[in-house]
Amino acid sequence: xxxxxxxxxxxxxxxxxxxxxxxxxxxxxxxxxxxxxxxxxxxxxxxxxxxxxxxxxxxxxxxxxxxxxxxxxxxxxxxxxxxxxxxxxxxxxxxxxxxxxxxxxxxxxxxxxxxxxxxxxxxxxxxxxxxxxxxxxxxxxxxxxxxxxxxxxxxxxxxxxxxxxxxxxxxxxxxxxxxxxxxxxxxxxxxxxxxxxxxxxxxxxxxxxxxxxxxxxxxxxxxxxxxxxxxxxxxxxxxxxxxxxxxxxxxxxxxxxxxxxxxxxxxxxxxxxxxxxxxxxxxxxxxxxxxxxxxxxxxxxxxxxxxxxxxxxxxxxxxxxxxxxxxxxxxxxxxxxxxxxxxxxxxxxxxxxxxxxxxxxxxxxxxxxxxxxxxxxxxxxxxxxxxxxxxxxxxxxxxxxxxxxxxxxxxxxxxxxxxxxxxxxxxxxxxxxxxxxxxxxxxxxxxxxxxxxxxxxxxxxxxxxxxxxxxxxxxxxxxxxxxxxxxxxxxxxxxxxxxxxxxxxxxxxxxxxxxxxxxxxxxxxxxxxxxxxxxxxxxxxxxxxxxxxxxxxxxxxxxxxxxxxxxxxxxxxxxxxxxxxxxxxxxxxxxxxxxxxxxxxxxxxxxxxxxxxxxxxxxxxxxxxxxxxxxxxxxxxxxxxxxxxxxxxxxxxxxxxxxxxxxxxxxxxxxxxxxxxxxxxxxxxxxxxxxxxxxxxxxxxxxxxxxxxxxxxxxxxxxxxxxxxxxxxxxxxxxxxxxxxxxxxxxxxxxxxxxxxxxxxxxxxxxx
Length: 768
Ligand SMILES: Nc1ncnc2c1ncn2[C@@H]1O[C@H](COP(=O)(O)OP(=O)(O)OP(=O)(O)O)[C@@H](O)[C@H]1O
Known about the structure:
Elements: H1 2-31, H2 38-60, E1 66-72, E2 77-81, E3 85-86, E4 92-96, H3 103-107, E5 116-125, E6 128-136, H4 139-142, H5 153-161, H6 177-183, E7 190-195, H7 201-215, H8 217-220, E8 225-229, H9 232-238, H10 241-244, E9 251-254, H11 270-277, H12 281-290, E10 299-304, E11 312-317, H13 318-330, H14 335-361, H15 369-380, H16 383-392, H17 398-406, H18 409-415, H19 421-427, H20 442-445, H21 452-463, H22 481-493, H23 503-510, H24 519-525, E12 533-536, H25 544-553, E13 559-563, H26 577-585, E14 589-594, E15 596-597, H27 602-607, H28 609-615, E16 623-624, E17 633-636, H29 648-662, E18 669-672, H30 679-686, E19 691-693, E20 704-707, H31 709-712, E21 717-723, H32 725-730, H33 735-743, E22 746-754, E23 766-767
Helix pairs in contact: 1-2, 2-22, 6-7, 11-19, 12-18, 12-21, 13-14, 14-15, 17-21, 21-25, 22-23, 25-26, 28-33, 29-30
The structure holds adenosine-5'-triphosphate.
């Protein structure tokens, strides 16, 4: 212990020295003149970003700086920690956990130790090492011992049984071998990680993000990594993990937040979500868009030159309109971007016709080609021609297209012939109030749901930006070549990827067109941003339309997909991984499985066996890494008048909750209720001290939260009370998956409270 404390003390001294160095450099930069040449200003700012980042990395490494060491046969020792440190002579003192040299620390098992002969896990409090445990490898070490595949068992169990805090923490010190293989899997292609509840899919996916950014910083620093979680609550639950690993630039988002300017609400009915998520909706939107491009039965008439001596009527034949449409189609551009070609075709044909007529009548002499071109330009500004263009090819925003589609039964019927009447009806929204006296609530009008977001994004692909909006504009093209050159030199000087911006952006910044903004900020505001790697958590919930959106955000198709098909609750969610991936990444996805459940004790997992069988008899539950003392129990609430005083059910329920809360001892508890649950009982619980309804991410800080199974997905608690399992089962088509999610959230104790009979698939609970 003394030796370890001495060594770790030396590491902290180096950490302090490194911090001091970075802080001094930063102070020097701040003292430098703000003015100077573009190049010197660029250098100054790039260095500032670099040293600020380095300082925050060094601060993030404070807690648990060094957590282990390995020894090889020749007696060489290597300490493993959060970052790499070297002494004054540049001799390595500490190996970064993400470096390939650290891999044996995580991968060695008694059965396959590789070159490792001994491994030690250190546990610290503050800067002091307070405990360690050793794994001894080699044949002699195996005798008389079960060859546990777990690494650092004591440290692992200590972390698994510690009270939950409402926030996920990092696991760098206790990553297990099968998890390490996922974390260090190569960057390219799509990696699917299937695993039952509690197998560490989320935590592993986040460590993989940190690993990939460390290993492939050159490729990922400028394009960024996107992590998708199911909702805001979940994102809050995980948002400390990457900063604790020294990474603050990863973009965390839910599908509902991926369309700039819109926050999708989770208020959709399962039926509507299933229709909106259906892959056929891509075709539906394209058809709906086509219906906006009108054609006359035979012809339309427009009047031009109303305010001049040359007023004339022009016949616009269907054939002309078709030629104009064809010109737009030929561009291959998105709808709004193709319109100028239609306008060009229409106005030139009309101008030519007018010129021919005039020439034939010999009015004002013959028109030459330049004059015809001028006339065509004038025609474009004619009010009737503008109105004509609007009928032929109106400019549309994604919001307008969707609002029109959802507001019109006729349009829905025309665009969705393959859907049933009932399915179409789920999309129908009240059109905005026609009576101008009747105020429309602007919030209501703009209320988009999570299931709408992939549709808005799809529509944006079809439509393209409106003129003057969205596109990067002329700035790129006009980039001053000299400044661009400077920017390249500056970035080269610092090593590619040291700061996550490219030369063009740096140059724009110095023309004052753009101020430096972190990648996360720029990426979320840009619908067309292509991320270098996308990680999707709870991926089984994503609809085919959401997959389309994500593949657009990840042009290189480098993705990590983690999820559990047994937990699919969304109506448009997946039944198999191939369903989502074969279409976009056929032959380019590989899958691995995580098999050990770190969260839920064996006693609780036994209760879920029948539920898992009901989902799919072929599925096997992950094996629980530990057993816990508390046996899962059930409590029946007798019906009113069944021997209890009025209000008895509510008071029995409250008493049960209070008993559990008292036993919590600083941890966190969840009460998971069916969406159809009795309002009276619900409000009875809300009144209790410390109980919070989960309507805002900060609710996770509360000791007890009331939430549905869908909201509980991905989260974990010390104690869980599941209310009315029969109602959870019956609530919707995937109720059994929801019940499975609800039962697998606890790290310590599980209670089930029910009014009617317990569902048969729930066996083995101790009645109270
Ligand atoms: N190697 C490990 N060391 C310490 N804790 C771990 C390890 N692996 C997993 N855990 C812990 O186990 C718990 C479950 O992990 P996580 O939430 O990532 O599982 P999951 O597979 O995403 O579960 P679910 O599918 O139920 O959401 C977390 O508290 C996590 O920190």
